Amino acid sequence: MVLKETQSRCDRWMKKGMRFAAGLSLAFFMAVTSNSTSFAEFQRPNSIKEVEPNDTLETAQTTYPTNEDPRKFANYDWSGRYYVSGSATSSDDDWYKVDLPRGLQYLSVVHYSGDNATYVELLDSENNIIIPKKYGTRNNIISFNSTGGTYYIHIVGASENENEYAVYIGTPRLVSNELNIRFDPIKTSGTIKKSFSLEDDILPDEAHVATITLRNFIPNFSSARASCSSSSKSVTFSKNSFVEDLGTYDMKLKSKWNIEFYPKSTVSAVPSITFLYFYPVYDDTVYLHSPTLKK
Known about the structure:
Layout: H1 5-16, E1 26-30, E2 47-49, E3 61-62, H2 70-74, E4 83-88, E5 93-110, E6 117-124, E7 129-137, E8 139-157, E9 163-170, E10 173-181, E11 192-197, E12 208-215, E13 221-228, E14 234-237, E15 243-245, E16 256-263, E17 272-281, E18 287-289
Parallel strand pairs: 2-4, 3-5
Antiparallel strand pairs: 1-10, 1-18, 4-9, 5-8, 5-9, 6-7, 6-8, 10-17, 11-16, 12-15, 12-17, 13-14, 13-16
């Protein structure tokens, strides 16, 4: 990390967004829930708020398709994201219209907290129902084939309470998550080499690594080096750096990984590793995966 160390570190941690511990040894919790809400999902310039009146198809508010790329998000480039946030009750209908290209599209209506829930319906420009009203809490994700042209999104709250939501349409919505790896302690003064594969694990196929964080690294080690089979580049950790941005390295999480640690002197522990990554969400599936990595 450079710069004015304090500001740089603050910026780096702000970029990481909401994060959570993943468990023991090699543990992975991939959940499309509020726990995996990423920094990218907070209000940004390419997001808009609901504007009333938008209660009918004729008064539908315009939104725009999202075009999210995990490789760009890993480099903190949010330019492909576009969404609209609003709230609805059972007596308040919200309508949005969007122009879409031909091909497979995803409509994602996300409820980030509490008991928020809505019914979502999709119609084409001729008022044909493409997706019948579908009840959803947390994430309501629907795929459909677009023939190109204007589509209308109809949202109704599931109760008389204000049900808050965010609407994404176009490419699948991206979220961030973490994968924590802990190695068994070892006592040595020599180079510690750790090789492991994540290729066969139940992890998102399109996950791209944004950062790697080493814990228990400073002050016991002078440096470390990480490389993987999906990239020709490697990343080096110096004695003053325990977090490295990898967005420009195009490193996929599901790779064969090699980590080398260089102790300053005799140590009796190996740093644990945390991967922060971005991946597309295609459905509401929740995966829980926690194998143990042997040294």
